Amino acid sequence: MPRHLSTDELKAGLPHILESPADNGNVDAITIRPASEQRLDVETCNVSLKGGIEGDHWSKGCWKSTDDGSPHPDVQICIMNSRCINLIAGERANWPPAGDNLFVDMDLAPSNLPPGQRLQVGSAVLEITDTPHKGCPKFVERYGRDAVVFVNVGDGDTYKLRGIYARVVQDGAISVGDTLAKI
Counting CB atoms within 10 angstroms of each CB, which of 5, 18, 78, 116 has the fewest? Predict the structure, then answer.
């Protein structure tokens, strides 16, 4: 794992993160989590309303569920800004432990992607949900306390630097290099 950056080092990288495009962003990496603590860095994946990302443990149950015990669709897909994870984790090989499915170069702030906003990504359509995505103890362990404070508090919360959640509204395939376009 990378050296943990200080608060000052992280804050110095914020302007670059905030230059992410508001529309027509890019998928820079895809991670499938087959089980807890397992990560597969893949070039393409299939997504569906019923199963989320094919092969991801979300479909087997997760921290948020519906009244009948099914995995909650509002947390199907975890999305993080790739400029942010690159600052925190360094080289791409260090990104998957963050636990997000899609690492994208796009402005994830609610002022740009409010809950309900739909995105065409590859042949799939995703919809941003209002479920908060926050750094957890595992994020602290992997990237340091300063990193979790950076993504969760102040500007980090305002710009959703830890990321956002989305649900699938149209089945399809997503690949590294695909554009994310607001629809």
Answer: 116
Residue 149 tokens read as: 């404070």
Task: Provide the token pair at 121.
Answer: 């990504």
The whole-angstrom separation of Cα 12 and Cα 112 is: 22
Distance CA 178, CA 142 (A): 28
- pTM given for the model: 0.94
Residue 2 is classified by DSSP as P
Low-confidence ranges of the chain (pLDDT < 70): 1, 63
Burial of 133 (0-12, 13-18, 19+ CB in 10 A): buried
Q: How far apart are CA 49 and CA 9, in angstroms?
A: 40
In the block, which residue shows the tokens 């602290």?
A: 140
In angstroms, the CA 83 to CA 74 distance is: 24
CB atoms within 10 A of CB 135: 24
Q: 90-124: string of b/e by CB count within 10 Å (b at 16+)?
A: eeeebbbbbbbbbbbbbbbbeebbeeebbbbbbeb
pLDDT for the residue numbered 105? 98
In angstroms, the CA 57 to CA 44 distance is 17
CA 146 and chain centroid, separation: 19
